[in-house]
Amino acid sequence: MATIPNEQIQVFGKGTLQAEGVVIDKEGNAWGGGRNGKVYKVSPDGKVHEVCQLPEGSIPNGVALDRAGNFVYCDLGKQAVMKCAPDGKVSMIADRVGDVKLTLPNFCSYDAEGNLYISNSSTEDISKVLGEITAPSPKGALVRVRPNGKGDVIATGIYLANGTAIDPKTLSMSWKARAMMSCVSSSIRTARLANRKFIRRIFLRCQTGWRSMSIATSTSRSRPLLPRTA
Q1: In terms of Cα–Cα distance, which of 147, 191, 146, 145 is closest to 172?
Q2: CATH assignment of the domain containing 35
Q3: Which of 7, 30, 47, 112 could link 226 by a cystine bridge, Cβ 3.0 to 4.6 Å?
Q4: Which conformational region is residue 36 in: left (phi greater than 0), alpha (psi within -120 to 50 degrees), or beta?
Q5: Which tops the pLDDT comparison, 220 or 33?
Q6: Sheet holding 151-158, edge to edge
Q7: SS3 at position 145
Q8: What is the C-alpha separation between 46 and 169, in angstroms, rounded?
């Protein structure tokens, strides 16, 4: 694995307050949400711009941009996934999907069809979840919100479901689980079958290797999943 010398690491966009997640738009601007509830945009020349102040009590975590230019973020304080429009108007996308209440929404990613995948780290809220770092518990979940607003639960029983990403090579949805003990990461992979159905299968990568956990429902698709651009 390639290493980067420390002297080659540069400070980019100094002045943001603990931006947990960042996303890059087509113009090369880096967007993030600070722990002070502010949305920041850092231009390619390194200048920091405060875009808007989120509602009181907001704690933005994982972030994304949709095709309309909305800043989408997981709000640990509001226990919901929210979006901030270009004009600064804030609205809720979801605080519950199916039987899963988004008590600790961690990260979100869009696929090419506009589906929003959200990891919920635990059924505990932010004030109690720290105990699960030393004593992992399968309380996490992965859910999906469709463009029409309807949602479904993709997987449950995940140890501290964390970051999410769309993998265009394996046509998969993956996320990282930061459990310190039995399971160190997890992912959801997609296999294309001859009948053009996609079956999403959950795997846990434990100390002893990859181990199958469960199988989610399959859905027919008319075309392969492609990477989404902001």
Answers
A1: 191
A2: 2.40.10.500
A3: 112
A4: alpha
A5: 33
A6: 105-110, 116-120, 140-145, 151-158
A7: strand
A8: 32
Dihedral angle of Cα 84, 230, 193, 118, to the nearest 10 degrees: -30
Whether 26 is in a domain gets the answer yes
pLDDT of residue 27: 93
User: Among 31-40, 59-68, 166-175, which is the least confidently predicted range?
Assistant: 166-175
Count of domains forming the chain: 1
Taking residues 28-36, report their average pLDDT.
93
Phi, psi of 135 (to 5 degrees): -130, 80
Per-residue tokens: 183? 């399971």
Give domain status of residue 111, yes or no: no
Give the model confidence (pLDDT) of 55-67 as tens digits. Answer: 999 999 999 999 9
53: number of Cβ within 10 Å = 14
Which residues constitute the domain of residue 58?
Answer: 16-94
Asked whether residue 30 is domain-assigned, the answer is yes
Strands 38-42 and 48-53 come out as: antiparallel
pLDDT digits (tens, 9 = 90+) for 171-216: 444 444 332 222 323 333 333 333 333 333 333 333 333 333 333 3
